[in-house]
Design goal:
Structural class: alpha/beta
Number of helices: 8
Order of helices and strands: EEEHEEHEHHHEHEHEEH
Helix content: 25-40%
Largest sheet: 6 strands, mixed
Shape: globular
Number of strands: 10
CATH class: Alpha Beta
Strand order of the largest sheet: 6-7-8-3-9-10
Strand content: 25-35%
Number of domains: 1
CATH topology: Rossmann fold
Oligomer: single chain
Distance between the termini: 30 Å
Length: 252
């Protein structure tokens, strides 16, 4: 596999009333194509800041971010917006569905930025909705008529409808109950099984277990890495024990 994302001496600093807060410090990282990388760390370790820098949602203060060997660090805001539209999908803890649009229209609104409104596109949306367990009875429903887990699965379809090369997720199960969270994680597992590159931030052990690689941040730097077989290919009890031991070593 090749690196789809790479950073070189990545730094991100925020200023607050004249004080400099160094959130990411000289970080070197490679994200491999078709990998499921999970970013963990204590609160304030720089997890979400790193995700935003990798995805072009925020610019680094210093250092470089490469996507497929192209330096995106100096892209203008407009060029970064096009980059995100064409290459990235996003799933957040807050789902951000448009409340005045039904399920189908929420997904098609994003898809039409890249694709033409064709019967093939509509058929693809419906196929993906069925795959994530959103059946036809819900397609004309509005977000306030759905459960949190259903809304998040709709959000995932919206994130992948344009075939992103990489999918970013920031605490995607953080606002869900355990049953809905499992349903959403099953979708991520299936996407990864089908070759989707994923980078996910989480503080949750059950969520992290779905990854194939866990990196641990402390004070804006990587202090440890744990590699696991793809989910479902090994004994998950041993997988959990192994990851728990790693996290304990990291001081989680």
């Amino acid at each position: 596999m090749k690196a789809i994302l790479k950073t070189e001496k990545l730094c991100k600093t925020f200023s607050n009333e004249g004080l400099q807060q160094h959130v990411i410090k000289n970080l070197d990282l490679e994200i491999m194509e078709k990998d499921f990388t999970v970013i963990m760390g204590s609160s304030g370790s720089g997890k979400s800041t790193l995700l935003y820098a990798l995805s072009g949602m925020d610019k680094p203060t210093m250092g470089k971010v490469f996507f497929n060997d192209e330096d995106i660090s100096d892209y203008s805001n407009d060029k970064l917006a096009v980059f995100r539209r064409d290459h990235c999908g996003f799933v957040f803890q807050s789902i951000y569905l448009l409340e005045n649009m039904n399920v189908l229209d929420n997904i098609l609104t994003g898809a039409l930025l890249v694709q033409k409104n064709t019967p093939e596109l509509v058929a693809k949306v419906k196929e993906l909705l069925n795959k994530v367990g959103i059946d036809e009875a819900l397609w004309k429903k509005y977000p306030n008529q759905l459960s949190g887990g259903e809304c998040q699965r709709v959000g995932i379809v919206r994130a992948v409808i344009n075939n992103p090369q990489i999918l970013f997720a920031d605490e995607p199960t953080g606002a869900l109950n355990s049953s809905s969270g499992k349903d959403v994680l099953d979708v991520f597992t299936e996407l990864h099984k089908n070759g989707q590159s994923i980078v996910m931030v989480t503080h949750d052990l059950k969520t992290a277990l779905r990854g194939s690689r866990v990196i641990y941040l402390r004070d804006g730097g990587i202090v440890g890495e744990h590699r696991m077989p793809d989910y479902g290919t090994d004994d998950n009890s041993k997988r959990r024990e192994s990851l728990q031991n790693f996290l304990n070593e990291m001081g989680w």
